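>> received
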Amino acid sequence: MKDFIEFAIPQNRWFAVHIIGGGVIAKLFKAHHETFLFTLVCVVALAFLWELYELYTLRGDRLKAVYGSEKRWFWDSIGDIAGAIVGALLVIL
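>> returned
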């Protein structure tokens, strides 16, 4: 839990961008009258796919150069996905 609190939010430079992104995606789905659950699942899936894409493109030494370690990348990614969920919930609730 300590690592999540340390790396997922306060040291996550892109946390706010993921909140905004989750909100924008949710707004687009909401504009097309999609259901709450469908919208939330799509936001989570897109956030997760983005983190997998990031892992794929930054694998190895580049990942460690950006994040410092794989552990920090993991917690940063969890924070990014949580941020996207928060943004989506702010829009659809």
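>> The two ends are 27 Å apart (CA to CA).
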